[in-house]
Each structure stands twice: as structure tokens, then as C-alpha cells.
Amino acid sequence: MNEPSIFTRTGMLLGVDALARLASARVILFGVGGVGSWCAEALVRSGVGCLTIVDSDCVEPTNINRQLPALTTTVGMPKVGVMRDRLLAVNPGADILALQERYTLESADKFNLQDYDYVIDAIDSLKDKLNLILTASRLPHTTLFSSMGAARKLDPQQVRVSEFWKVDGCPLAATLRKRMRKERRFPERKFLCVWSPERCERSQPKGTLMPVTATFGLTLASLVVQDAVKPAAKDRP
Predict the structure, then answer these.
(1) Contact status, residue 215 vs residue 159, Cβ threshold 8 Å
(2) Residue 7 forms part of a structural domain
(3) pLDDT tens, residue by residue, 65-113
(4) 204-214 residue pLDDT tens
(5) For 121-140, b where at least 16 C-beta lie within 10 A, e where not — what string?
(6) CB distance 54 to 110 below 8 Å
(7) Per the domain annotation, does 8 fall within a domain?
(8) Which domain range does residue 201 map to?
(9) Fewer Cβ close by (within 10 Å): the C or N end of the chain?
(10) What pTM was computed for the model?
């Protein structure tokens, strides 16, 4: 790397070959809210060159406390549109596809998940989340990373990564497993989740805090980066 660039510092840490791998990695991210928006930012700032972001929602005032695209000046605007403009301002050379759509059982086929190296699940809807997990886990050449519940959490230091079946103490993961057993539908491959064991009162309102949701999103992005650069580890300076 002879000329300084926006990825000079990343290249110092990872090496040129790793940067190339990140630039060519194809990632699709479902949900650009409190978790997904920070994940998208971290991916592009880390050098991921091809990112599709999927979210059907527009910015609301209640999003401002934790979501990257949410400002008083962007209320009412599509989240994916705001995020695409921001990500291209970070790296104009990135290939950013913004889809203002919702992943459902009925819409699943249009996303062509098999064309991506990584699928990131930051979906809130239990039904849609379950369908995405089951679908993505069937793809032999696509790696799935999933966010479990970040609501009602205060302590970002408790955020951790575990294989889905080893997540213990997360109500969302427990509900997903219960639904899988009831419907007798299970993921075909193991996958990693970002989650927190922090206990909360079930009667507590479903509030959210940016230091926690952002930590979830940044951790998801780090999983992609670490996996993508593995073959190039020996080439680090």
C-alpha cells in the first residue's frame, strides 16, 4: 500500500490480501435499525465492498435514541436510503444496494441469498427471523450471523458470541428454539449469534439503549471481518 487511502490503517493491521478479500466479499444485511445500522457502517468502514441493506421502514422520532440513520432531519425518510447515502460518503467506491423491502416467507425468493458470502440477520419480527435463519442455514457456501435480543439491556460489556444452540439466558433465542421444535423445522447448519445474558424483568417496557444495540451491530460486523480475512492471516505484516 504505497499511497494513503481510507483503508491504510486497516491494511496495516490485516494486510493487502485481507483487504482484497473484504473488498470482494458480498454481504446482505436484513434490518438497519438499532443493531443493523451500526453493523452496516462498521462493514463499510472495514473495507467490505459489496453490501445489500434490506429494511422496509422509514425513520421515526423514536428511532433517534439508537439508530444511525435517525436524525431530526431524516424523520419520514426510508432508512435504507439514508444509510446508502451515508455509506457511499464513507466509501464512494463501494457497491451499496438499498432495498426498501421486508424479508418474509412470501418475499424470500427475490433476495437470492445464494449469491452472497454472508447473510446477517438483524430482524425484529420473530416469524421473519425464523424463516431467514432456516433458509440461510441451508445454503452450503453462505455464512449466517444472527443478532438475538438487544432490548431491555443496559450493559454492553455483557454482549457475547455463541453458537445458536449454546445461547443461554436470551428470551428471543429460547422462543426461536421453542418455535423450531413446535414446527419441527431446524437450521441445517450451525451459526453464530450475538447476544447478551443480562437479566431483565419481563414486565419491563421494551426499551433500548444505543451503547448496547451498537455493540451488537459492531460485533456482527467483526464476525464477518474476522471470517473473511482468515485465509489471509499469514500475510499480515
Answers:
(1) yes
(2) no
(3) 999 999 999 999 999 999 999 999 999 999 999 999 999 999 999 999 9
(4) 678 999 999 99
(5) bbbbeeebbbbbbbbbbebe
(6) no
(7) no
(8) 13-231
(9) C
(10) 0.93
